[in-house]
Structures are given as structure tokens and as C-alpha cells.
From TrEMBL:
Keywords: Kinase, Transferase
Keyword field contains Coiled coil: no
Record's protein name: Carbohydrate kinase PfkB domain-containing protein
A Pfam family assignment: PfkB
Organism encoding this protein: Arabis nemorensis
One GO MF term: kinase activity
Family of this protein: Belongs to the carbohydrate kinase PfkB family.
Record InterPro entries: Carboh/pur_kinase_PfkB_CS (IPR002173), Ketohexokinase-related (IPR052562), PfkB_dom (IPR011611), Ribo/fructo_kinase (IPR002139), Ribokinase-like (IPR029056)
Carbohydrate kinase PfkB domain sequence ranges: 58-276, 335-393
Source superkingdom: Eukaryota
Length: 404
């Protein structure tokens, strides 16, 4: 049986041509007063309708911390090693479960020690694994992650699972049971063929869908057509729309995806930007240039506080030059300013943020409350090694002001 725990340092060899991910994806918030008047006893119960179904990637993460990233042909030693569950969907649903949601997961592992370890870890965090497919042969997905203490970055080398998941792996009866009473469905686009089948059924049942648009992937365009909510990385909006700026790209996304209610682009330590579609057209005829509005929001941002903050516009007609106009609100958030000595690892910060957004949607939080809450959850996760070690529970005192 595979035990996910801390191990002794290992010797590491450098690998040329390793993919270096984009900077961490933390996020936003309105100014929250961390008052001592809040207590654990004042925390509200989880939402009654808090069932989230996720479909996507899970893996075993081998996290090695090094003093600095090796040069080609170097041989170095790690300063610590942790082995734990990972994968976007596994991380986000673990976060949602710790926050109080009833989390169900559809994915695939092999019947090997790593797969068994993943199942045990998810179950210990309250994630329903009864819909996971276990292959009799093959290998469970795994990822080598090198955490650079000097630059506070991480490099990931992923090995996919084999055989991959296909729609026929999931019986129709299992899919319908997984969707039963679900409040929201989440996709990280890893298992796109299976995800699309689930998305069509969820849409037919009028269950909201959130898509994690980390980067362009096979099947992403099809899934986005079903999305009510999108959370994406800093480079995705411009890459997907071929627009020259993120504000213009967000307008383009809402115009191209008429079902979309909001899109959030995460900007790492710079916070995030969110565009929310208005439920009805703005009454005034005057249009506001979204680029100029963003500059106005930047000037209103409180840069003196270390806690996450968020400023928002009124509902208005937002115009992007050469693209078009949508009625909605623009939100600009800041990330928590984490002291350098407390910042350990940014692995999974974006997944933590999404887990918190899933909770916030089920709980009916306003964007002004949702964004700082998600930013706080992501910041908590950055204070420990690995994607799950620092994920907070709903009783964490740092979350109390958001949950009263």
C-alpha cells in the first residue's frame, strides 16, 4: 500500500526541456475586516444544496523541494519530499469538501498502489469516490513537481494514466446517479470526451456548469459552449480570443459564449479580474470603455492592506473597441500579500481558488464576498508544501469572517 507522507531527501537529476508552468493562480477579494469579534461558533452551516460533481484529473504528486532549480547535467539533493494526491479535479473537490460541500468525483485510476492511495486519501477528506473507474491494468497518473525555494516557483512533469478514460467506462446509470441532486458540475477538461457526455446531460437537467480553462486543450471549445461560469489563467483569455488585452478578451468571451454568466481570469500575486454579465440590459444608453474602467478600478484599489480586496463597477454597458458591447459589472481583486517567510509552495493555488468558488456559488455568495473568500483559501494553501496540505477546513479561523 502506498503511504502518502513526508520522506527523506532524494538525489535529483536535472532534466532538459522541462515544462515550466505559468505563475501561481491566486485570486481576488473585497476588503474584509478580520475582526476578533468573529468566532468559530458564529460560522453558518454549509448550504443545504451543496452537492458538487467534478469530472477531471487526479494523480499522485511527488513534490521535491530544492534550494534552487538545477542546471542541465547537475546532480542535486532535495531538502524535503512529500507524496500526496494531486490533479486539478482531485484538488478542487478536496477543497470543496473541506469547506463543507458534498463532493462527488468522476475520474479513472489503475488498480495499483498509487491508485489505491489516491482513493484512500480522497475518501479521508470526504470526497465520494464511488463513481471512479478503476482499471485492472495500466498505471495511475502521477506528476513529479520540483519546488524551487529560491524563486518560489514549481516545475511539473506529468505522466498520464493508462489506459485513458473513455465515455464507455462510465455506465449511463452511474452518470445519472452522480448528477442526482447536484447543484453544480465542474470540469477541468482533462477527460474531455467523458466530460462532454456529462455536460450535455447536466445541461439538459439545467444544472450549472463551471469550466476550469487553464489552457487550450482538446474538447475545451465544446465544453465552453455549456459553461455558466469560467475560471481561467492569466494567458488564456487572450490566447483563446486572439485579443490584445484581457479586458477586451473577457468581453469577447461573453459575446461568444451567450450562456456564460461570469468569467474570472486569475493573475497570480496581482489578484484577478472578473466580468459578470448583467441579468438584464443596462438602462442607460451611454457605453463605458472597459480599458478605461479598469484603470479607474485600479486607482480605487486599497494597496495598503495585506488582506484580499475587491472593487467593482456599477452595472453598465461595457465596450471593447473593435469587439463589441456587453452589459455587466467589472471586478478587480487583489491577492493576499503573503510574507516571504510564509510562502512555501504555490502548487494547487488555482485549484484551491476554484474549490472556494464552487462553494461560494452553492452558498449564494455575492461576487464581492466570493472573490476575497477564494483568494483567502488560495493564500492558505500557499503556506504549505503540496496542493492539499494547506487546504483549509471551514472551521479555519482565517475563513470565519466569510462564513458567518
Amino acid at each position: 500500500m502506498l503511504c502518502f507522507t513526508n520522506l527523506s531527501p532524494l538525489r535529483l537529476f536535472s532534466v532538459s526541456g522541462i515544462f515550466l508552468p505559468s505563475p501561481r493562480r491566486q485570486l481576488t477579494s473585497f476588503r474584509t475586516r478580520m475582526s476578533s469579534s468573529f468566532s468559530i461558533d458564529s460560522v453558518s452551516p454549509p448550504p443545504d444544496n451543496g452537492i458538487v460533481l467534478g469530472c477531471g484529473g487526479i494523480a499522485v504528486d511527488f513534490l521535491a523541494t530544492v534550494d534552487s532549480y538545477p542546471q542541465p547535467d547537475d546532480k542535486i539533493r532535495s531538502t524535503s519530499l512529500k507524496v500526496q494526491g494531486g490533479g486539478n479535479a482531485g484538488n478542487a473537490l478536496t477543497c470543496a469538501s473541506r469547506l463543507g460541500l458534498n463532493a462527488r468525483l468522476i475520474s479513472k485510476v489503475a488498480n495499483d498502489s498509487q491508485g489505491k492511495g489516491i482513493l484512500e486519501e480522497l475518501q479521508s477528506d470526504g470526497v465520494d469516490t464511488s463513481f471512479l473507474v478503476v482499471s485492472k491494468e495500466g498505471n495511475t497518473p502521477f506528476t513529479y513537481i520540483i519546488v524551487d525555494k529560491q524563486t518560489k516557483t514549481r516545475t511539473c512533469i506529468h505522466t498520464p494514466g493508462d489506459p485513458p478514460m473513455v465515455p464507455t467506462d462510465l455506465p449511463q446509470s452511474s452518470m445519472l446517479s452522480a448528477l442526482d441532486r447536484a447543484s453544480i458540475v465542474y470540469f477541468d477538461v482533462r477527460l474531455h470526451e467523458t466530460a462532454l457526455v456529462i455536460a450535455k446531460e447536466a445541461s439538459r437537467k439545467k444544472i450549472p456548469i463551471l469550466v476550469d480553462a487553464e489552457k487550450k486543450r482538446d474538447g475545451l471549445d465544446d465544453l465552453l459552449q455549456f459553461a455558466d461560469y469560467v475560471v481561467c489563467t492569466a494567458k488564456f483569455p487572450q490566447a483563446w480570443t486572439e485579443m490584445s488585452s484581457n479586458p477586451g478578451a473577457l468581453v469577447s468571451m461573453l459575446l461568444r459564449l451567450p450562456k456564460l454568466k461570469f468569467v474570472i481570469v486569475t493573475l497570480g500575486e496581482e489578484g484577478c479580474l472578473m466580468l459578470q454579465r448583467a441579468s438584464k440590459e443596462a438602462s442607460e444608453s451611454k457605453e463605458t470603455d472597459i480599458e478605461s474602467l479598469l484603470e479607474t478600478l485600479k486607482h480605487r484599489t486599497d494597496l495598503t492592506t495585506t488582506f484580499p480586496t475587491c472593487v467593482a463597477s456599477e452595472t453598465t454597458k461595457l465596450n471593447a473597441s473593435g469587439i463589441g458591447t456587453v452589459s455587466g459589472r467589472l471586478f478587480l481583486g487583489t491577492a493576499e500579500k503573503i510574507p516571504p517567510e510564509e510562502l512555501v509552495d504555490t502548487t494547487g493555488a488555482g485549484d484551491a481558488f476554484i474549490g472556494a468558488v464552487l462553494y461560494a456559488i452553492c452558498a449564494g455568495m455575492s461576487p464581492e464576498k466570493m472573490l476575497p473568500f477564494a483568494a483567502q483559501v488560495a493564500a492558505c494553501n500557499c503556506r504549505a508544501l503540496g496542493a492539499r496540505t494547506g487546504l483549509p477546513h471551514r472551521t479555519d479561523t482565517r475563513l470565519v469572517p466569510f462564513l458567518v
